[in-house]
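# step 3/5: fold
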Amino acid sequence: MIDAHIHIFPTYRSKKAVEWIKRYIPEINVSETLAEEEIIETLSSHGISYFFNYVYPLKPEESRSLNQFNYELSKKANNAICFGSVHPGNADRVEIVREALLEFGLVGIKFHPFVQRFKVLDERMEEIYDLLEKLNRPVIFHTGFERFYKMRLAPEEIETIAQRHPGLVIVVVHMFYPRIDRAFELVKKYENIYLDATNIFSCYGEPASGENLFEATFLPEENAYRIYFHHSVEELEKYSHRVMFGSDYPVAMNDLDKIYACMRSFDISVTAKENIMEKTAKNFVNRFKPGFFGSDA
């Protein structure tokens, strides 16, 4: 299985990230002092053959160092598929992206607009999208969970980017949760849009007395809120070749073994499950890094 959404950060960021998620989901069993090597070992012990590693800068001065970090990780861990990022506030943002992709060999560029505090249609982003389209490299956007982040990224904004840049490959992370239907509307219209199902198959639950910050669905039979795939399974089957699975570890919404069990037990065809759990991610990477998997392809 390929976990297409992992966050190995430098120590100073990793500790803060785990502390942050545990403020909202304190029952998660993950250490604030989890080291890079421990994360990789944990993934391996859970049957993960490869993983996508995402970083993103909270301030402009972090951009180059985080890309350097992921470059070094890609050299240490042969099963790490590493992506770069940049802050819109970097005056030399195009040069930073070019360095990340062409000198460091990172696969694409990941953005978390809510945490990085920018709009995806910000005019500063256009030259980045232009470059990514020209170089045939993907852009990955965090979407969804807007009540929690107190920010909004409308599906129409992603569609505008897709229309302006028809050759640009776009990954919609979290499927605009809870508006999963809108994510599939885009997949049906634009062949270069992929979906990242991270947290959708997490089996996250919250008691009825909770705040429901994550906009989960209330299930009367459980007397609890639950995050689950509440869209058409038929459409998931049909477009499974453009859906990838990830955990968000170590800032995931549930314990890692529960997340993987949730995905593995989901009632869907073997072909679709193989796509979501591995083949889509492999084909996705091979679009930009042919031969990356060697004999494992």
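# step 4/5: annotate
The first strand starts at residue 2 and ends at 6.
# step 5/5: archive (pending)
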